[in-house]
Amino acid sequence: MTQKADDASVWPMGLCVFCGLPAAGKTTVARALSDCLEKQKGWLCVRLTYDDLMPPEAFSQSETSQEGQQSLAYNWKFYRHELLVYLEHFLQALIKGYHYLPPPKGTEVTWKNFVGCLKEQGLISLGADDTVSCQHLINITALRPTYFILDDNFYYRSMRYEVYQLARKYSLGFCQLFLDCQVEICLQRNCQRTQPLPEETIYAMAQKLEVPNSEKYTWEQNSLIFKSSEDTLEENLQMLNFLSFTLENPVKPLEENTEFKEADRALCAASFLHQADQSVRRIVSQTMKNAKAQLLSSFLSSC
To answer: What is the DSSP string of 108-156?
Structure first.
């Protein structure tokens, strides 16, 4: 068993979601941000780039039939969810001081990619006696204020909310960085990639993209729009202050609203009493009608 990190306050930790169109420059900015925070703050940034962690079949463009597209969408969602499971599993091992073990269920290729990513960034290592069991030692000495940067498109709000829920569950900092880049620029950069996406995919994603809206969704209040083609990290004090604030102010766990529950119980009780009162009134009224009918019938029979 490794040294235990009693809670996230020992090493303040946060989840930073990068969202934006493909080829908006998210990975480039994530690397620059890591270097900047390392130099200026002494923090550790763990980059989780989904394009590198998910297997090729999650992005296959060969299927054109409706059934094939549905299968591709399912695989894509499955692997995204699997990465979050691996991240939560690592957070649990870190906080509780356990070895990092493979979860009971998972695909071998994604697990190897995720573990390899953590190894490359110095967070875990395979002990001499742990080769067979696949137990990985967590390198506690490497830990310090830490941001896990999730680098993906995250174009649906529901995708980002899953990460927020994880931050809330473990009282971690949470923030969103939206890279605002024109579609035309994304298309130009996409053409320069070794494996470019179809243009229609980027156009479709641009139509579906849900930009963070802190006014409508309170959980998105820690969101920052970053002009990837204009801003520079070293000069962007706003971003550094923003990241410091979210790390120092983690998401509070979901608490039961006892006041609301008591009021709800009172309303239910009042409603029950009202319904019971109405039922009694109906029974009494019907009983009186029946009694009157019997009396009238008896009187008429005696005449």
So the answer is: HHHHHHHHHHHHHTTSEEE-TT-TTTT-EEE-GGG-SSEEEEEES---S
